[in-house]
Amino acid sequence: MRGLLALAFGLVALLAVAGTTLLTGREATIQAREDAIETLHTFARGMADRLDRGMFERWRDIRILATDPVLSNPTAPLEARRAVLRRVQESYPDYAILAFIEPGGRVLVDSRKLAEGADASARSIFIKAKVRPVVEDVHEAIVLARLLPRQVDGLPPRFIDIAAPVISDDGDLVGVVAGHLYWQWAEDIARQFREAVGPVRLIEPMIVSSTGNVLLGPENLQGKPLPVAAALPGPARWPNGQEYLTTSVQTRGYLDYPGLGWSVVVRQPIELATAKASHTISRIVVNGLLAALLAAPIGWLLASWIARPLRVLAATSERAHLLGDDVHFPSGTAKAPYQEARTLAGALGRLVGGLREGQQTHAMLIREADHRLKNSLQTVAAILVMQARRTNDPLARSAFDDAIARVRTVAEVHRALYRADGLPGEQVNLCAMLSDLCRQHAAAALRPGIEIECEPSGSHMLEGRRAMAIGLLVAELVTNAGKHAFPGDRMGTVRVALSERGEGLELVVEDDGVGLAEGGEAGTGLGSILIGRLARQAGGELAIASKPGQGTRVVVRLPQAA
C-alpha cells in the first residue's frame, strides 16, 4: 500500500504538472504572442510616426526655401541663390543636392555646382512642382549617381524628391526649388529603432511602398512585392520558409504633408517572440517535477501512517484463525488513528468474538456428541455380548467377538477424543489422544502378559476427522497384535510411537511376537482391509514389515495437513 500510494502521489503530481503545463503553456504562448504583436505594433507605429514627421520637416524645408526672398527675386545673382541652397544643405546633410530650376526646365543653380545647366523639363516632378508642392517616392538617379560621391556599400544611391514652386512678389512663377533626399535618411531611422530594442530580439522593420514593393528591408525582399499573407497581423510563414510574428502600420502624413502611402511592416522570429513563454513553461515543468519528486516521499510517509494500523489488523487477523483468547484487534486512537481503521478493527473484533463463541459452542457439542456416542456404542457392545452368549456356533461366536471388539474400539476412540479435545474447534492433540487410547484399550483388548508401550512425542494438532481415523487404525493394529502375535501363553510387548519425520509425522505400531510365517501374506483378512482403508482416510502411506520370529512392524507416514 505504501508503494502504491507513493506511486499514486507521484503520478497525480506528474499528471497535474502535465495538465498545468499544457493549459498554462497554451495560455502563456497565446499571451506571449499577443504581447509580442503589441510590442511590434508599438514599434511600427513609432517608426511610421517618425517617418511622417521627418518627411514633414523636409517638406517644410523645401516650402520655406521656396519663399526665400533671394530665390523669389527674379534678378537675384546666381551666387546668392547658391549660397541659400548650400546653407540649407549644410544644416541637414541628408540632402544629396538642392537645385533651383528656371521655369523653362534648365537647372539654373545647385548647392554642389554638379547639375547646373542640366535640362529637367521632362521630369514629372518639375512639371507637377510648377503648380504645387510635390514629393516623389524613392527612386534611383543614375545620372546624379555618377556625379555624387560613391556610397560605402557601393550600391547606386536612392533618393526621395521634394519640390515646390517659387513665386515672385508679383505672383509670377520664378522657378522651382527641388531637393534630392538620400534614402539613407530612412535607413538611419530603421537602424535607430532596431538599436533601441537590441540585437537579441531580431526585430526587422521594413518600409513598403503604396504599390506593395519593399523599399527598405532584407536584401532578398528589397525591391520585390511583399506577399500579402506575410504582412497580415499575427504568425505567418514568409518566403524564406521561416515563421514570423508580423504587424504593419500605414503612414498617414503629418499636418499639411500628405504622405506617400508607405506602410511600416515589422517582423520577429516566432521562437524569439515566444521565448518568454517557453522559459515560463520550462520553469513550470522543472518545478512540477520537483513537486512530483517531493510528493512521492510525502505519499510514502502518509501511506505508512495509513498502513500502520492496517498492518496490525492484518497480523492480528493472521493469528485469528486459531480463535485464541489472546487475539485482540486494536481499536484505540493510538493504534488506529483514523475512523475507518477503528471501525474495521471493531468489526473484526466482533466477528472474531462471535466466531470464537460459535467455535466454543461447536466444540462443546462435538464433545457432548463424542461422550454420548461412546455411551451408545458401549450399549451396542453390551447387547452384542448378550447375543453372543446365546450363540453356540463357534464361528458365529467368533464373529460376534470381533464385532464387539471393534464397537468397543470405536467407543474408546470417541472417549479418547472427548478427553483429548481441550481446545476450541475440531483440532485434536493427537499425542494426548493416543496416550489415553492405549491405556483404555490395553485393559480391554490385551490379555495378561502382553504389555503396551505408548511413546508419542511432542504435541501435534490434527483435525478430528483424521484423528478419528488414526485412533481406529491404532486400535485395530493393537487388537490384531494381541490376537495373532502372541499365540498360546506367549508374552510380549506392543509399542506405539509417534514422531516427526521431515515435514510430516511417522506413526509406528510394532510387536515382538511371532511375525508372519515364511511365505505368508498380510492384508487378506477383514482387519487388514480395515487397516488399509483407515490409513487412506488419515491421509497416510502404510508399510508393513514382518519376519518369522521377529515380530511385525507397521509404519504409517502422515502429512501434517491433508
TrEMBL record:
InterPro entries: HATPase_C_sf, HATPase_dom, His_kinase_dom, Sig_transdc_His_kin-like_C, Sig_transdc_His_kin_sub2_dim/P. The keyword ATP-binding applies. Its EC number is 2.7.13.3. It catalyses: ATP + protein L-histidine = ADP + protein N-phospho-L-histidine. It comes from the Bacteria. Residues 368-562 form the Histidine kinase domain. Gene3D superfamilies: Histidine kinase-like ATPase, C-terminal domain, PAS domain. The keyword Nucleotide-binding applies. Keywords: ATP-binding, Kinase, Membrane, Nucleotide-binding, Phosphoprotein, Transferase, Transmembrane, Transmembrane helix. SMART domains: HATPase_c. The chain crosses the membrane at residues 284-303. GO terms for molecular function: kinase activity. SUPFAM superfamilies: ATPase domain of HSP90 chaperone/DNA topoisomerase II/histidine kinase (SSF55874). This is histidine kinase. It comes from Belnapia mucosa. The lineage of its organism: Bacteria, Pseudomonadati, Pseudomonadota, Alphaproteobacteria, Acetobacterales.
